[in-house]
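Supplementary notes for students who missed Thursday's class. We covered one full example, reproduced here. Read the sequence, then the structure, then the short commentary at the end.
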Amino acid sequence: MSAKKIVYPLEDVLKVKERRVEEAEKQLRLRQQELDKEIAKLKEREKERDLVKTHYQDKLTQIRGELDRGTTSPKIRQMKDYLKVVKDKLVIEEKKVKDQEALVAIAKKNVEAAKRELDLKRKEVDKLKEHKTDWLKGIKREIELEEAKDQDELGNISYSLNQRKER
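Structure (token representation):
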């Protein structure tokens, strides 16, 4: 009977909250991409470090071999100096790896925070949708009661008219 369209009073709020969920999803994707980049950088740093470490081990083996063969003192000193340079480079590469691991940890925390934020925003939307469903049920019940009341009144009027006609 009622031709009016039922409009949920919090529809605009629901749309805003849904938009916030979309933004949070986009933010999560962005944070995940950042994490993936940081992990890729970490793997690259580890690879660079491993190359230096292998080079260091090779030079260490080489110097031991030279010592076993009985090389001259200046050559051994020169090899030890070079070994020290390689060791310093290895320390630098280790620091780069540690720094990158810290950046990966930060990126992981950012992803977790974005996930928590998204979950929170989804819960807000779910609560509002549940409220909308309950509200619509209540409105439909009211409309049905009103229509039933209108039908009763029409029936009473029709009955009264029929009673008057019979008199």
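Commentary. The mean pLDDT is 91. Helices lie at 11-69, 73-166. If anything here is unclear, bring it to office hours.
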